[in-house]
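look at this one:
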Amino acid sequence: MIEILNNGVVQVVLLGTVLLGIVSGILGVFTLLRKQALIGDALSHATLPGVVLMFMFTKSKEVSVLIIGAAISAGIAMLTMRIIKKYTKLQGDAILALILSSFFGLGRFLISLISRKPEFSKAKLDDFIFGSAATIIERDIITLLVVLVFILVLIVLFWRQIKTQTFDAQFYTSLGFSNEWIEFLMSFMTILVIVSGIRSVGVILMSSLLIAPGLASRQWSHNLSINVFLSALFGAVSACVGTLISVTHPTGLPTGPVIVSVGTLIAFISIFFAPQSGVIAKEIQRQRHRKDIQTYRSLLDVRKGFTIKDSMIDKLLKESYVSLDEMGNHHLTSKGEEKVKEIVGVNYHG
């Protein structure tokens, strides 16, 4: 393991994927809160025809050139979605499905047209579909750092606007601000992150890297600042662990899918085991609440002199919620009265 970590190529790949995980995690929180999780999926798939067309027109194999085509294609896809939504009655999910399938299908069609040309094999355009983290070089590290800093600066500068518009768009509009500006800003940042990561993770899996960390962070806290921090942390951990598993595995597992798998695992662990919002915690709370309701009803029945089951009476006696007088009648104790107040709230007057 130490020998592998001392390898310069591995260090570059590891740093690159971690930076990508951080920036994806930060933006993923806002994507989820704005209920636009599938937009990332649609835009990542929509980058493929731009990559292929840019290669066809320029004959360049430079990633920086091909990514420009990806950004243009994603921008066109976003604009197309907005136009369709504005001038038709189609629902959002139908529009996303249309954009995703049509753009990705166009990309695959273009690849099939040029697949027999010798220069195509050297361009390795398939790396944009399935991802190839091994292709990360030092120049990509600089690019990812610039993207990370740029997005952080934008989020810090427009934190209040983004936060307000995300949670209450109508209130934001009532203050005299335009939703279009924030929508454009968030779309721009989403496209920027996607085109920065499609070469490493691939257009198919990029949306998972964008969504999984944010989904996990939402299970641990409802504070937006903490969400952003946790999402960035989960993204970094996913990238780091996934990359290490990939480079240390004897068969050389593909890095992108492993990173996404680790991120998805973290998301599922959070969904089920988070202490407050997790499935298990909520089920425990539900069972506890159900028992409280049963206890409350039994205590009220005792107070009104109704007959209740012996098993419940034994339980209430054991917990000192009721007492037994000389005549064999049951009465609420002070602890029982407090329990009723605890269950129903301060409005209970006995």
Notes: The two ends are 67 Å apart (CA to CA). The chain is about 75% helix and 0% strand. Residues 49 and 106 are 6 Å apart (CA to CA).
